[in-house]
Amino acid sequence: MSELEGVVLGILQGKQPCTAYGIRMALQDSPSSFWSASAGAIYPLLNRLEKAGLVDASVDAGDARGRRLLTLTAAGRARHRQWMLSAGSVEVASAVSDPVRSRAFFLGAMDAADRRTFVDDSLQALESFLESARQDLVIRTDSEDSWAYLAALGGVHQAEARVKWMREIRDHLYDDSVPPVDR
Amino acid sequence: MSELEGVVLGILQGKQPCTAYGIRMALQDSPSSFWSASAGAIYPLLNRLEKAGLVDASVDAGDARGRRLLTLTAAGRARHRQWMLSAGSVEVASAVSDPVRSRAFFLGAMDAADRRTFVDDSLQALESFLESARQDLVIRTDSEDSWAYLAALGGVHQAEARVKWMREIRDHLYDDSVPPVDR
DNA sequence: TGTGACATGTAATATGTTACATGATTGA
DNA sequence: TCAATCATGTAACATATTACATGTCACA
User: Fold this and answer.
1) pLDDT of B45-56, one tens digit each?
2) Beta strands in chain B (DSSP E)
3) Residue B64 gets which letter from DSSP?
4) CB distance from A177 to chain B under 8 Å?
5) Distance B41 CA to D19 C1' (A)
6) How many whole angstroms separate alpha carbon B21 and alpha carbon A41?
7) Which of B151, B174, B120, B172 is closest to B32 using CA atoms?
8) Total-model pTM
9) How far is CA B94 from CA A31, A96, B115, in A?
10) Cα Rg for chain B, rounded, in angstroms?
């Protein structure tokens, strides 16, 4: 069961009845750009879920576009619950990915000028991302869903931790005691 | 250019000359389980890179296994540099993924008992992950590569932020009108 | 001498990406 | 009426996963 599948089931549970397009838009509104939320991923996925009996679809008769309103079945809810509870496994908890940190591991192979570019530019990008995470939090502030707010708050905390960390690296960079790496 | 490709080029740059197997093992040693580091991903990838002229391979004549020692070409180094500098783009900085947080957005759809299970179990998983991130940091402490140390430190900071955040959620959970479990 | 790590690779499968293609609906 | 948004979908392609398959090397 893929991450995207779990997320899509979750969005559907919160918005049903809604269209595949609506799910796509909800995914796109997230500050994270981890999924492209492309039509080529969403429509085939939803059709798979429907075929597997996790999702019900009814064509909206009053809409000539063939608008399909989707809802979760009982099996779909059970599957979503199963996905949720997998958060307790260490494998899921450790399947994080941070593309900036992945790159930072190899800073030692760059020359001093590139290192500066890297740190300055990625710090700016991280600050910009933090800003969008904060905006996302504001949107959820008056929502009745305090859990979604707390989840978004976690995103802000993590974004703050990333900015702080990159500032630490910058401080280290501007410290002259570090000799250049030999190549 | 995929994340895995960039990471593999980076590992190779730091360990060359080394085998594809060595790169796999280096990937596996990371506390993050984001990549499975399976043979089915690494060997085809390295062969693609070789074909593209980013990697050079020389068969070790003294080894009957057909051990191939890999090195980066100039084009490979340039490609790696390009990947590194892409950390400055907001798209890359925002392409983070946290499977526990993804799930936390949908806590509102769970019943109280499942919510408690979710929070208690994922807190334990996050603490366990934090521990492995700390161990990874210890390994890098006496390394001459201070940058890799700083990168791993970022991993620890983020893991700490995730634990702290889940504790906040737990506090919110037990503050609620829901009667507390026996403890 | 035997076991576990080293070493390379493929096959079937699943899933995601980009780009393309089409048309309806809504509101200024 | 016209443009932006809503809405569904496919095609070619790239890439990762799991499971399988084979054999060598180092060392106790």
Assistant:
1) 999 999 999 999
2) 55-59, 68-72
3) T
4) no
5) 13
6) 32
7) B151
8) 0.93
9) 7, 13, 28
10) 21
